[in-house]
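Supplementary Methods. Inverse-folding protocol.

Structures were first reduced to a discrete structure-token string of length 139. This string, shown here, constituted the complete conditioning input.
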């Protein structure tokens, strides 16, 4: 994946609350182009693989259970400086600390049910995009 791309997924709280369209509108209005998009649900085992990077953290088991509890919407997005600009668009992990106007400030329910994921590096964006989408879905 090119370095002007990032990976995101709408989490079960956001999809369950019917906020999929509103959040995608924010993303497009911020200048991100949708390269790939689907609606799916992770098993606990697949969530564990996706979040293997967090294996040693105290919240890992809860996170995997939560992320496999409902529908998610993974996407690959394209924009100049995509990873950093997207992290700024979604705001801090804890919605209580997220800046006003960010997606998490407006849609997240808690530090765990925080509406949306955003990759934290170009390398992780590529790996996470490849986790959900085959090469021919990434054009
Ligand atoms: P994300 O990966 O989802 O974009 O979030 P992030 O970089 O802001 O946060 P990260 O440290 O990567 O944590 C991944 C997700 O784990 C949940 N979490 N729970 N209970 C807790 O203290 C706690 N801390 C993090 C959140 O859902 C977070 O987005
Ligand atoms: Mg993260």
């Amino acid at each position: 994946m090119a370095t002007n791309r990032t990976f995101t997924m709408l989490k079960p709280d956001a999809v369950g609350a019917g906020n999929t369209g509103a959040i995608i509108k924010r993303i497009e209005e911020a200048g991100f182009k949708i390269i790939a998009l689907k609606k799916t649900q992770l098993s606990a085992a697949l969530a564990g693989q996706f979040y293997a990077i967090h294996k040693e953290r105290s919240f890992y088991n809860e996170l995997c259970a939560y992320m496999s509890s409902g529908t998610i919407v993974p996407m690959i997005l394209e924009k100049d400086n995509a990873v950093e600009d997207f992290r700024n668009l979604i705001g801090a992990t804890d919605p209580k600390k997220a800046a006003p106007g960010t997606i998490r400030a407006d849609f997240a329910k808690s530090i765990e049910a925080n509406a949306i994921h955003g990759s934290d590096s170009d390398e992780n964006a590529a790996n996470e995009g490849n986790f959900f989408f085959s090469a021919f879905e990434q054009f």
